[in-house]
């Protein structure tokens, strides 16, 4: 559901309540029950005490999700997204690190609001968080490629408006992780438009920090240094069979039914269930584990200093542990041997340092249309993606009253019903490379 721009503007200073001072008096006359001014135009009736009370209550409810501590603001952009950063009195260096968050299926920019606020609170002068808004709600049915292209264009626009940023990181939840993977490939080695941009009414070319507009380094994402690529409960290997959607309980009949009805979720459903066959090409998720002449999926991912996969080990009914943690099911840790690693993070049950799996045999299944069995597709995607090093963080909300919402709790989509995931966000922040 789209969020009005008025709901994303957090102001550092309270309003003085004035707004009618200095207004010029206008003559008015009464005509029956209606008041009109001298020109004959109706004048609005004064609000009753009951109406004013209702308005104040509505205003209060709108500001509930806004930051309560001073000097934080979230500024809406032209594309509908918003940038969250800290504003302090006096001049100071602008944040050099841009963090882009990406929502999942039927989500919106609002889903990442809690995490964005915590990142800015932890690194007030170093980061600006942009909660992307190019793929909300129904637009998430358009397909990973279309969504990824939209996100790429949005990021270019944001970078043009943030001339001081030098680094970039992405955080994607669920489908958002796949969309981010596509977008970074489109942005790999490119930068925003090279023409001068105006910042605060001044020519951007006069700003020395605009260096990223001319940067041609191919190991850059949108002309910036790629640092963190983080996914949370993302179906990297798709959602086709093999218990990758736990709500089907591993029943082959239900999984086959889901595959046949994947079109219900539009092109996105066909991408997730690996049933797309556009122009005779392999499934998109399979294409996204290789570099091609036109788009460098693996090179783009490899350019980041670190790649992290947060995964629900249980209670996530939408995305399986294997696909979200980039492991074979036979290599998943035994749940009974896992427990909270630290008091500070009660729901983090295992942290695995960056690992690379070398691929000894080159697989060419992407060129063979007859090799479409789920296990083979899954194995190919897993082998290619794990040629890059990934940190894996396993999460469990077992025993929590919010475990049924684990898929959203790992992100703290709504602080009221997903608050148990706050330690997961804190773990993400504490290990973030700034």
From TrEMBL:
PANTHER family referenced in this protein's UniProt entry, alphabetically: ALPHA_BETA-HYDROLASES SUPERFAMILY PROTEIN (PTHR12482:SF41), LIPASE ROG1-RELATED-RELATED (PTHR12482)
For the region Disordered, what residue ranges are annotated?
1-61, 353-373
Kindly give the Pfam families that the UniProt entry links to this protein: DUF676
Cite the record's Basic and acidic residues compositional bias ranges: 364-373
Q: Which InterPro entries match?
A: AB_hydrolase_fold, DUF676_lipase-like, Lipase-like
Organism of this sequence: Rhodamnia argentea
Every DUF676 domain range: 95-323
Q: What is this protein called?
A: Lipase ROG1
Bias category Basic residues: which stretches? 42-61
Tell me the classification of the organism that encodes this protein: Eukaryota, Viridiplantae, Streptophyta, Embryophyta, Tracheophyta
């Amino acid at each position: 559901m789209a969020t009005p721009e008025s709901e994303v503007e957090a102001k550092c200073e309270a309003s003085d309540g004035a707004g009618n001072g200095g207004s010029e008096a206008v003559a008015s006359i009464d005509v029956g029950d209606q008041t009109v001014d001298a020109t004959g135009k109706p004048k609005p009736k004064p609000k009753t005490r009951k109406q004013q009370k209702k308005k104040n209550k509505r205003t209060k409810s709108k500001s509930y999700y806004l930051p309560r501590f001073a000097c934080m603001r979230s500024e809406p952009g032209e594309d509908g997204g918003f940038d969250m950063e800290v504003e302090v009195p006096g001049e100071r260096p602008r944040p050099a690190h841009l963090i882009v968050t990406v929502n999942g299926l039927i989500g919106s920019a609002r889903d990442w609001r809690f995490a964005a606020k915590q990142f800015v609170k932890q690194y007030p002068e170093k980061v600006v968080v942009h909660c992307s808004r190019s793929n909300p709600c129904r637009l998430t049915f358009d397909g990973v490629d279309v969504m990824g292209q939209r996100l790429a264009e949005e990021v270019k626009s944001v970078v043009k408006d943030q001339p001081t940023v030098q680094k970039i990181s992405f955080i994607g939840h669920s489908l958002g992780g796949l969309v981010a993977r596509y977008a970074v490939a489109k942005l790999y080695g490119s930068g925003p438009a090279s023409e001068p941009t105006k910042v605060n009414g001044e020519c951007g070319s006069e700003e020395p920090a605009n260096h990223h507009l001319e940067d041609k380094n191919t190991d850059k994402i949108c002309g910036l240094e790629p640092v963190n690529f983080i996914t949370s409960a993302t179906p990297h290997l798709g959602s086709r069979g093999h218990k990758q959607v736990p709500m089907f309980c591993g029943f082959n009949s239900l999984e086959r039914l889901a595959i046949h009805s994947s079109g219900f979720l539009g092109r996105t459903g066909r991408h997730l269930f690996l049933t797309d066959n556009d122009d005779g090409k392999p499934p998109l998720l399979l294409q996204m584990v290789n570099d091609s002449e036109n788009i460098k999926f693996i090179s783009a991912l490899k350019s980041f200093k670190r790649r992290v996969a947060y995964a629900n080990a249980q209670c996530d009914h939408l995305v399986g542990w294997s696909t979200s943690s980039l492991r074979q099911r036979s290599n998943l840790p035994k749940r009974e041997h896992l427990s909270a690693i630290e008091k500070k993070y009660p729901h983090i049950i295992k942290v695995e340092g960056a690992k690379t799996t070398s691929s000894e045999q080159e697989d060419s299944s992407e060129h063979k249309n007859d090799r479409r069995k789920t296990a083979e597709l899954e194995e190919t995607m897993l082998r290619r993606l794990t040629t890059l090093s990934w940190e894996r963080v396993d999460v469990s909300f077992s025993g929590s009253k919010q475990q049924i919402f684990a898929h959203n709790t790992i992100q703290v989509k709504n602080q009221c019903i997903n608050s148990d995931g706050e330690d997961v966000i804190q773990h993400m922040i504490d290990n973030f490379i700034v």
